[in-house]
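User: I'm new to structure prediction. If I give you an amino acid sequence, what do you actually give back? Let's try with this one:
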Amino acid sequence: MNNASAVQRFFKLAKIDSAPTEERLIADELKNELKQLGCSVYEDGAGEKINGNTGNLIATLPGTLPGTIMFCAHMDRVEQGLGIKPQIKDGIISSDGTTILAADDLAGVVAILEGVAKAKASERPHPNIEILFPVCEERGLMGSKNLDYSKVNAKFGYILDTSGRIGRIVNKAPFKGVVTIEVFGKASHAGNFPERGVNAIMAAAHILDGLQEGRLGLESTSNFGSIYGGGENIGTVCNHAVIRGEIRNHDKSKLEEYYQYVKEYCEQKIKETKATCSIKFKLDYEGFFVPVTDPMMVLLTDTMKSMNITPRIETGMGGMDANNFNAYGIKSVGVAIGYSEPHSLNERIVVEDLIKAGELVYNLIFNYHE
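Assistant: Good question. You get back a string of structure tokens that encode the predicted 3D arrangement of the chain. For your 370 residues, that looks like this:
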């Protein structure tokens, strides 16, 4: 694999802004690159469904061997990902410290393009290769939730969107649910008649006090990370507040049990105030588990071993497009590509791993057997 090519491609793509729902510029660049590789490229209508300006990209490089292998990496990045200035030192790519690097998930995009480009240049017979570049992964996997699955032929795929040194494989990820607690108080003039009001924010704080959250177990977490209400008018007793939280668990029934605990706890605590509350739950995405004995896992681990990469199969607690793919019957696992500290100003990627990730894509293509 050409080290300079991978680094140059990463630098070029990192400098193209690509926020969730605003992936148009990078999608157009990737469309051009995919077409130059000989791929047919289809952009679905996910953008309209999520109020974005771009759909998911589904590309196919036709092969002469039976079967289809799929690779995926998302196009968007989290906040503080605008105006990235990548730099390289001692084999590590980082930003200038004022933004994230967006190796999550540009490293996956680059590895896929590099591996497929090498496969095309080799002129060796290969199966059909499908490439998925979803939008809006960083905002609740919205792209893959709204993917046009009728355009996807692969029965399994590798999601190059996992932190850690190359060799790490996430074959198990949790179910995730979202809890919304609305608290209803009573508005009143805060100076003249505060006693006539019921402060929804104070009531919200009261019902959260003592709630079990955070690390609930080895495979269970919760986080109530958002609370808002009342607008900017501090002269009025707040009459409405909203608390939002997430629950993650590898066991769906235990996820639902924890929600019932939250519901009952908050309904009991709100009785100690003059406010009322409404509590809702929504399953955000399904969990998944692909056994190590599954053929797609065997293909991945055997290919790694042939490259002198030691596979490290681990359970994850984050979500990725693989959650939605597995729910739709496309077996998928997360594959680490060398980045660390994603979503932070200290995000970085090891160049050696970026190169090896591209080589892994290349070798998986030719090791695949229908």
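You can read the tokens as a compact description of the fold. Here is one thing that stands out. The domain at 175-285 is CATH 3.30.70.360 (Alpha-Beta Plaits).
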